From TrEMBL:
TM segment ranges: none
CDD domains xrefs: HTH_ARSR
Protein name stated in the entry: PadR family transcriptional regulator
Chain residue ranges for the region called Disordered: 121-140
Residue span(s) of domain Transcription regulator PadR N-terminal: 14-82
Cross-referenced Gene3D superfamilies: Winged helix-like DNA-binding domain superfamily/Winged helix DNA-binding domain
Organism for this UniProt entry: Curtobacterium citreum
Length: 193
């Protein structure tokens, strides 16, 4: 997967986020995760060194608030944002493209898992003992009915999951671990059949 931010753009995006209001590091990480619908959440090891560099450059200041360190944009930081307004627009566009690309990856993974599940269900509907597909005419009517119901249930499940994932992505609550959890759950279901 290509990097979410081009070189130097995460640093600039942190300034954009701090322009709204001061935040501590974890809030910035959450804000980035929310912006990407949970499909990208940077690590503390990615964010804090950039904040330290911004502080060294005088673009942000930090103050202690109990056990937390709160970062705020300085006037020099605001001047930097104003001077790089065109670049910020390009970063915003890149973020939107990255969110779409990450969501497309989740969609493709879920689609592949569903295709695999359908194939496994179809294989399990084969008659025991022969291992070969039977002529559809010779499938007992009870099995044929069960297979149709399974296909309808899978189709309904796919549509419902897709709608739920899109809603979560729109609200910014779709997390990166969703693909793994869905894959694991589908695999466990497949094995239980």
């Amino acid at each position: 997967m290509s990097p979410v931010f081009a070189h130097g753009h995460l640093r600039l995006y942190l300034l954009v986020l701090l322009a709204d209001h001061p935040m501590h590091g974890y809030e910035l990480i959450q804000a980035l995760g929310d912006r990407f619908g949970g499909t990208y959440v940077p690590s503390a090891g990615t964010v804090y060194p950039r904040l330290a560099k911004l502080e060294e450059e005088g673009l942000v200041s930090k103050t202690a608030d109990g056990r937390k360190t709160v970062y705020a944009i300085t006037e020099a930081g605001r001047t930097e944002l104003a001077a790089r307004a065109d670049e910020i627009a390009a970063v915003e566009s890149g973020v939107a493209d990255s969110v779409k690309s990450l969501a497309d990856g989740v969609r493709a993974s879920v689609g592949e898992a569903m295709r695999s599940l359908r194939a496994d269900l179809a294989a399990s509907a084969e008659s025991p003992g022969t291992g070969a597909h039977e002529d559809p005419v010779s499938v007992p009517s009870e099995s044929a009915r069960a297979l149709r119901e399974l296909e309808m249930a899978l189709s309904s499940f796919r549509q419902q999951v897709r709608a739920d994932l899109r809603r979560r992505a729109t609200r910014g609550t779709l997390r990166a671990d969703t693909v793994t959890r869905l894959r694991d759950g589908l695999e466990a279901l497949r094995k239980s059949l």
